[in-house]
Amino acid sequence: MSYMDQALTLARQSLGEVHPNPPVGAVIVKNGKVISEGITQLPGGPHAEIMALAELDYQASGSVMYSSLEPCCHYGRTPPCTDAIIKAGVAEVHIAVLDKNPKVFSRGKEQLEKAGIKVIVSEFSPVVEQLYEAYFKFITTGLPFVTFKFASSLDGKIAATDGSSSWITGQDARDKVHLLRSESDAVMVGIGTVIADNPKLTARDADGRLLDKQPIKIIVDSHCRISPDANVLTDDGMTLITCLEEQNVNKDRLKARGIKVIETPSFNGTVDLPSMLSQLGSMGITSVLFEGGGTLASSLIQHSLIDKIIGFIAPCFIGGKNAPTPFDGAGFSSLSASQQVRDISVQQIGSDIMIKGYLH
Ligand SMILES: NC(=O)c1ccc[n+]([C@@H]2O[C@H](COP(=O)([O-])OP(=O)(O)OC[C@H]3O[C@@H](n4cnc5c(N)ncnc54)[C@H](OP(=O)(O)O)[C@@H]3O)[C@@H](O)[C@H]2O)c1
Questions:
Q1: Active-site annotation holds for 70
Q2: Which domains, from first to last, does the chain contain?
Q3: What is the pLDDT of residues 306-350, one digit of tens each?
Q4: What percentage of the chain has pLDDT greater than the value 70?
Q5: Which 3-state string (H, E, C) describes the chain?
Q6: Using a 6 Å CB cutoff, which residues line ligand 1?
């Protein structure tokens, strides 16, 4: 594994945990040997570069640093990483990608170069781009990156006509979904899914044990119809209910239980999704894994609010004219108006097919 790959592996470990900061990994090398490593800590804590330098008592003369992201050069919650790198005597810095944060973009690199440090920025890599896709959208728009994950049969059904949907895909695909949950800042479903499936929305291993990183659970529920006994309210972890700005006893009961509620204006009597996402962005949520159902998916797509899809297609037919599909609602009236998905990649996961792609 190259030194940069090591830095990227470290960065990936902090995905879903350090928001609104980017996930970053840093490796310091001297005389062909890794002498220290760092991972970005929780907001307010040291960045990856500082963690790696601290391990060396900030003495890194003549060393080479590999960082998965351009080092910051401004005062945020912590002082600039560039100052510490320069002071420690690092001779060369390799950066996987420049930081699209307007306060940093190219400036971090320039500050290092001005101090006589050789800086090398890696060529474009889809792996790196994917690692930072959520953070880059968030830092340039203030909105979270929304990934729509669904599991469907070969004939495009996400549940049977009796409403049952557990489990369409196999264990390997389900393990992958739990990993995706743990790497996301939040998971989100519509109230229809909570009523039909009573999901936990936690990130678990194959034996049902909770993973170390748990996403915030978001339920889109205009009139707070959620049952007080719903698993998402009784299980561990933080749950957010997004609903309308209206008088509602159930909302008061949720608030009294300490459950966080986000209120939006009404859009045809339902939650205003652009307002909801902008409030989630203001809370520092950079990535949302949206898990259905089809009614909410249809509204999100109509508002162009889905950035990416990850579909797990199982080798089975469910059939049924009225069985739900990933995108329900009125749909697009003609093929020429249909939503295209670009940059598709396909991978077999156990007996299922995982298809990924982007909507914009
Ligand atoms: N296989 C899979 O991947 C998968 C995943 C999830 C669900 N499912 C299946 O999908 C079915 C549930 O899906 P569903 O379509 O009935 O429900 P849904 O999409 O989960 O929830 C729809 C509800 O969300 C609320 N909502 C609030 N604001 C909205 C907005 N702006 N736009 C649209 N909806 C909004 C509405 O209820 P209010 O007006 O009361 O707020 C609406 O009825 C179940 O059968 C479940 O098993 C399958």
A1: no
A2: 3-130 (3.40.140.10), 142-358 (3.40.430.10)
A3: 999 999 999 999 999 999 999 998 889 999 999 999 999 999 999
A4: 100
A5: CCHHHHHHHHHHHCCCCCCCCCCCEEEEEECCEEEEEEECCCCCCCCHHHHHHHCCCCCCCCCEEEECCCCCCCCCCCCCHHHHHHHHCCCEEEECCCCCCCCCCCHHHHHHHHCCCEEEECCCCHHHHHHCHHHHHHHHHCCCEEEEEEEECCCCCCCCCCCCCCCCCCHHHHHHHHHHHHCCCEEEEEHHHHHHHCCCCCCECCCCCECCCCCEEEEECCCCCCCCCCHHHHCCCCEEEEEECCCCHHHHHHHHCCCEEEEECEECCEECHHHHHHHHHHCCCCEEEECCCHHHHHHHHHCCCCCEEEEEECCCCCCCCCCCCCCCCCCCCCHHHCCCCEEEEEEEECCEEEEEEECC
A6: 150-151, 158-159, 163, 165, 168, 189-193, 196-197, 220-223, 225, 267, 270-271, 273, 291-296, 299, 324, 328
